[in-house]
TrEMBL record:
It catalyses: Release of any N-terminal amino acid, including proline, that is linked to proline, even from a dipeptide or tripeptide. The lineage of its organism: Bacteria, Bacillati, Actinomycetota, Actinomycetes, Glycomycetales. Keywords: Aminopeptidase, Hydrolase, Manganese, Metal-binding, Protease. Residues 42-179 form the Aminopeptidase P N-terminal domain. The keyword Metal-binding applies. This is Xaa-Pro aminopeptidase.
């Protein structure tokens, strides 16, 4: 009996490299020109200045920062790759499995970027490596193209060990295998310096933030126009989430974080990312969404819209209080104020409003005291954060460098008060249960105050209603 099965039926396993007919044939007959590396315009120049600033903080230290690898989703399938933010800030490069090495020299550091070369026709990896083989991932820039685009010394990844890296500092989130293989030291100090440096954005970074915010506000309009369809066809929250995610992928790299769409009783759930419920026609609809620009800088904006175009009296009352808190917080964003001043200003308005409604079991002063905080039952999260390459940017700075610092021009941050009355919260009257409202804007600290980058979207109750009604009319 003859075994009629072919000697090999797949493409990724080692056996195929031993089949001479296949390897001879697939190695020849390919055309193609070098593929240029195309970093976001201005990214390479900005990154060179970022490396200079880090060099000034760590004289004499060798620094190693890697871009990382796509995490496994299941079996041999990975999530879409997104490089480490510190790596992007220092290189302007978004390649997978890349490593930056900064070695000290008199007066600064030399920088070298190590990259895995793409596998070209004629190499086994061309058809055998699903991560770097061009048969799998398409034509890719080579090392010379990266060096030319980034104006940095580039070497193959397998030459990483040629440099004296023992004891070099690396970020704490670095691949443990990489750190162990090269005797690197995961360094809280390095993380801290990078976070502090990234707090104040340069002109190029601010331009990227504007692009991200502008694309985001346009995305809100795209979502609002789909509300009638989400209700009428029963497509629900998931449809609106998908609408924004498609917009973000079209006009940027994608979303900066998982899009939140919460209708009615889902709106008070702070991280309602499941988005698997209906869009209720008479409920408030909380949308927390941000486009990540192609440079990977992200926006983070929230509005709460009346799905019908008009808030109910109860929804309006809650929205009005959140708006007052929002304005009080934004008024504290200016040079020279302490970072947390905006938080305390907004919280004071919230606590007073809740007391006036009879929802606090203590006085306003006691609630605002460090040992009280009863008002936080309805607002358990903070009132804002730094924003940049990460949604919650610069998170490895020390407390005094983050929370206790004075604001200065170039800081980009969010202000986002809210009130969250859960549907099963028996401490609030029935007419308020299931209402969640948040307002979030992205602010740039300027020389004499602050610019609200997301002010294309209204925050006052009447303005939100009019804006929503206009979008619903566009959809008709």
């Amino acid at each position: 009996m003859t075994d009629a099965r072919p000697p090999y039926a797949g493409t990724r396993y080692p056996r195929i490299k031993d089949i001479k007919g296949f390897t001879d044939f697939i190695a020849t007959g390919w055309s193609g020109e070098p593929v240029p590396a195309n970093p976001v315009p201005g990214a390479a120049q900005a990154a060179a200045d970022h490396r200079r600033r880090l060099s000034e903080r760590l004289p004499g230290a060798t620094v190693v920062v890697a871009s990382g690898s796509a995490p496994t989703r299941n079996d041999d399938n990975t999530y879409l790759f997104r490089p480490d933010s510190d790596f992007v800030w220092l290189t302007g490069c978004q390649a997978e499995d890349a490593v930056l090495v900064m070695t000290p020299r008199p007066g600064g550091h030399d920088a070298r970027l190590h990259l895995p070369p793409p596998f070209r026709p004629g190499e086994t990896g061309f058809f055998g490596d699903a991560n770097h083989g061009e048969l799998w991932v398409g034509a890719s820039p080579g090392l010379p193209e990266w060096a030319d685009a980034l104006q940095i010394d580039v070497a193959p990844l397998d030459r990483l060990g040629d440099q004296a890296l023992k004891g070099a500092l690396t970020i704490q989130s670095a691949d443990p295998a990489l750190a162990a293989a090269h005797d690197l030291v995961p360094s809280a100090l390095l993380d801290r310096h990078l976070s502090v440096l990234r707090m104040v954005k340069d002109a190029w970074e601010i331009e990227q933030m504007r692009l991200a915010v502008d694309a985001t506000t346009e995305g809100f309009a795209a979502v609002a126009r789909e509300i009638p369809r989400a209700i009428g066809e029963g497509l629900g929250e998931r449809w609106l989430q998908g609408t924004f995610d498609r917009h973000a992928r079209t006009h940027g790299n994608g979303t900066g974080y998982t899009t939140i769409v919460g209708s009615g009783p889902h709106a008070p759930v702070l991280h309602w990312v499941r988005c698997d419920g209906p869009v209720l026609p008479d409920a408030a609809l909380l949308l927390d969404m941000g486009v990540e620009a192609k440079s990977l800088y992200t926006a983070d904006v929230t509005r709460t819209l009346p799905a019908s175009g008009t808030f109910s009296p109860q929804q309006r009352t809650v929205h009005d209080l959140v708006e007052r808190a929002h304005r009080a917080g934004m008024a504290q964003v200016r040079p020279g104020t302490k970072y947390l001043d905006f938080h305390f200003a907004a919280m004071e308005v919230v606590a007073q409003g809740l007391h006036d409604w009879g929802l606090l079991p203590v006085s306003v002063d006691e609630a605002l005291s460090p040992r009280g905080q009863q008002h936080r039952r309805y607002l358990a999260c903070g009132i804002g954060h730094h924003l940049g390459l990460d949604t919650h940017d610069c998170g490895h700075a020390e407390y005094e460098e983050y929370m206790g610092a004075d604001l200065e021009p170039g800081v980009v941050m969010t202000v986002e008060p809210g009130l969250y009355f859960h549907a099963n919260d028996l401490t609030v009257p029935p007419e308020l249960r299931g209402i969640g409202v948040r307002l979030e804007d992205d602010l740039l600290v300027t020389e004499d105050g602050a610019e609200v980058l997301s002010d294309a979207l209204p925050i006052d109750t009447a303005g939100v209603e009019a804006w929503t009604q206009a979008r619903l009319k566009e959809a008709a």
